[in-house]
Amino acid sequence: MDLVSILRIAMRALARNKMRSSLTMLGIIIGVGAVIATVGLGQGARQAVQNQIAAMGSNILFVGSGSVNRGGQRTGFGGTKTLVMGDLDAILKEIPLVKEGAPMTSSSAQLVYENQNWSTRVNGTTPAYFDVRVWPVQRGTVFSQDDVEQSANVIVLGTTVATNLFGTTDPIGKTIRVSNLPFRVVGVLVSKGYSSGGMGGDQDDTAFVPVTTLQKKMAGQTWLNGIILSAVSKDASFAAQPQITALLRDRHRIRPGMDDDFFVRNMADFAELQDQSSKTLTYLLASVASVSLLVGGIGIMNIMLVSVTERTREIGIRMAIGATEDDVQTQFLIEAVVLSLTGGFIGIALGVGISFLVTNLLGWAVLVSPWAIGTAVLFSMAVGVFFGFYPARKAARLDPIEALRYE
Description:
The protein is an alpha+beta fold. It folds into two domains: about 5-50 and about 275-405, no CATH class; about 100-230, no CATH class. The chain has helices at about 5-15, 20-55, 85-95, 130, 145-150, 160-165, 210-220, 235-250, 265-310, 310-320, 325-360, 370-395, 400-405, and strands at about 60-65, 70, 75, 100-115, 115-125, 135-140, 155, 175-180, 180-190, 205-210, 225-230, 260-265. Strand 8 (about 175-180) and strand 9 form a beta hairpin. Helix 9 runs parallel beside helix 12 (about 370-395). The two termini are about 25 Å apart.
């Protein structure tokens, strides 16, 4: 018997028990839908994390001031005052794996424009910072190296600060007060949104001034809180890390066996940790949802066994008029596969629908990839074959004489 005839007979048999077939497919529908939705949520979360990490910049290394021991009591990070501009110059000069870098120092301040005010962190740095962070302006420009050398009162605003101080008014060229000092707004940065994980917070709730301006006019300090560096590549960032440590230990005259008065962090480590966490979450969600597919497969096996019992006499008649064991086995296998595939396609539609619903209602990032849909289809077919094989084999091995006698 040809495959088309077998498929037609299988469809006719399933159609005779529409309610039972629908309930049997329900387990597959729920399983596939759950897998599609949970994998979409997991991949969406992973993509969001990757986007947030990419927003921090590429191949980033961060050097921060370390802790200090005062009378047996150790302060936290940021307690030392040994990190200076000379350290940045030395790193850029002596470590070729580092292509660019910028100083970082900061202070809390109240920013005031007319009757509006906003409290934020004001960061002192150089124009290179915006290249390292890959952070362009959406309006105006960043301050220049001349502004740094002249300790000019110019400021670049994050979008959160600009919105809260100016609303829809263009802030470029306007004068604001920062800690009672007048500053001219020269630029507004492109929005980067919220950072992920331990970095935390709204990246746009910030402002930038020349590092010399902050040190001399606002904070009254000569040291730096940190240095941000960009390596020539991701691999180079790992190789540069111990070189930076060795150079700074030598510059700070730290003897062997003594603790560093600084720390060096590679943002690639943080990125890989976040990516691995997202992967693990995706696999966990998919594994839990796959249990529904297993339950649906068992349901198919159960119904197919019932179907074999109910149709024993029919099987006997078919075999008596020439149907082979392969014909009977193929018929029941196709019935099982049709059940699971139909349920799989409906489940895919359900999963995609749930994904879009979650995105619209909750605003969560959801990414439904083609491979997830393809895998769901193949898995549905595999469930049908796996759980349909035993009932099909049982039907094919029935004795035609005994089957004809069956009532």
